[in-house]
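Methods — Computational structure assignment.
A single polypeptide chain was analysed. Its primary sequence is given first, followed by the predicted tertiary structure written as structure tokens.
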Amino acid sequence: MIDFENKGFFKLKQDIDYAEKVTDLLLEDEQIVDSYKTMRDGVVFTTKRIIAVNVQGITGSKKDFTSLPYKNIVAYSIETSGTFDLDSELEIYFSAIGKVRFEFSGKTSMLEVSKIISSHLL
């Protein structure tokens, strides 16, 4: 499992093609909403959960998939990008593991992600 405790996760940039890495993990009624990546690692938001992908090893053939179901979220916070500071952040508090933080680079619309999380919380 990814160690969310010791660091903020990685700076993510939107990349819809990254979602292909998790298609075999999806349930029949689960849809991909958006996906983000760094050089190798990434995060995929679905209609049911967040899947964090940690690519390991020199060749990148070994991967760790961490499933973070929306149903375990107790609170979350988003920080949108501004005029000069284009980075945005998402902090999610899970009942079992605590705080998970994602940082996004560039213009990233946090509104869609916020709506999905809210739909499962409210």
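Note: The CA atoms of residues 9 and 102 lie 5 Å apart.
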